[in-house]
Write a structure and sequence with these properties.
The chain is mainly α and 157 residues long. It has 5 helices and 3 strands. Helix 2 packs antiparallel against helix 3. The longest helix is centred in the middle third of the chain and has 36 residues. Bound molecules: zinc ion (ZN).
């Protein structure tokens, strides 16, 4: 089945935008498979829900940055406290890192919204821009009118 992750409806045969299989999706799938809960549905967003989903995705990205900064601040504060108290040891340091990662994990668990394979904006006739060097090469490689003739002797039958 092809399930829209916003409205949870079966979208088989309807216009949808596929979502990117990222590390988080793969992890969730693996966990579900090991728990025998995998439904192996193909995940997507139906066209009607794309704006809603994009909003969620933006919120997720924003909260990830926010929680990333928060996690970094907490880890730095914890490590600084450890250093100043003179009780620095590797286990305390590692637990500070784990606490930071947990903060990030919270952001992912509660706000996660997968990226779309192709945003609706990108899908509509936006030309992929070539880097300048590539453009130059393309110009150079355009054959001169005379060179377009096939080389003698190489002609197939
Ligand atoms: Zn939907």
């Amino acid at each position: 089945m092809r399930i829209c992750i916003v409205c949870q409806k079966d979208m088989e045969g309807k216009p949808v935008v596929p979502i990117k299989e990222d590390a988080i999706i793969r992890t969730i799938r693996k966990v579900k498979q090991s728990l025998n809960m995998a439904q192996n549905n193909e995940l997507c967003v139906c066209e009607a829900d794309v704006p809603a989903h994009e909003k969620r995705r933006k919120e997720f990205e924003r909260s990830l940055v926010l929680f990333g900064v928060l996690a970094a601040v907490v880890v730095v504060l914890l490590v600084a406290t450890l250093l100043m108290s003179g009780r620095f040891d590797i286990f305390a340091f590692l637990s500070a890192i784990v606490i930071g990662l947990c903060i990030l994990l919270f952001a992912i668990l509660f706000k996660y919204a997968p990226a779309l394979e192709q945003g609706p904006g990108e899908a509509k006739g936006k030309k992929p821009k070539l880097p300048k060097e590539l453009e130059d090469i393309e110009k150079k490689e355009q054959p001169a009118p005379r060179a377009a003739k096939p080389a003698p002797g190489k002609r197939g039958r």
